[in-house]
Design a protein that fits this description.
The structure is a single chain. This protein has 96 residues and is mainly α. Helices cover 71% and strands 0% of the residues. Helix 1 runs antiparallel to helix 2 and helix 1 packs parallel to helix 3.
Length: 96
């Protein structure tokens, strides 16, 4: 018989999915930061927690949505990739 292996068991630390989570979190943060600083005239330092927070909440919402799908689950590994993307965005934003 074929063994039924859930997606959760196949959730690897390294893979295209994690690259996508990292990239999307970083790019959403940078995009929101750009809008608040350059279009809304918000101070750079005040916009950083907003931009990172918006991106973080988008990542959480995606995982909650995945958890509600038939074969989906909330991936802590995806959230780590999201967090690394947020840290990288913060690094880029903080450059002089």
């Amino acid at each position: 018989t074929v063994q039924n292996i859930s997606s959760k068991e196949n959730d690897k630390w390294i893979g295209i999915d994690k690259v996508q989570h990292f990239s999307y979190s970083c790019l959403v943060s940078l995009g929101v930061q750009y809008v608040f600083v350059n279009k809304v005239d918000m101070e750079e330092s005040a916009a950083i927690p907003v931009s990172l927070g918006v991106s973080f909440m988008a990542g959480v919402a995606k995982e909650i949505q995945d958890n509600k799908s038939k074969n989906g689950f909330f991936s802590k590994k995806d959230m780590v990739a999201n967090g690394l993307g947020l840290l990288f965005a913060w690094f880029i934003i903080s450059l002089p």
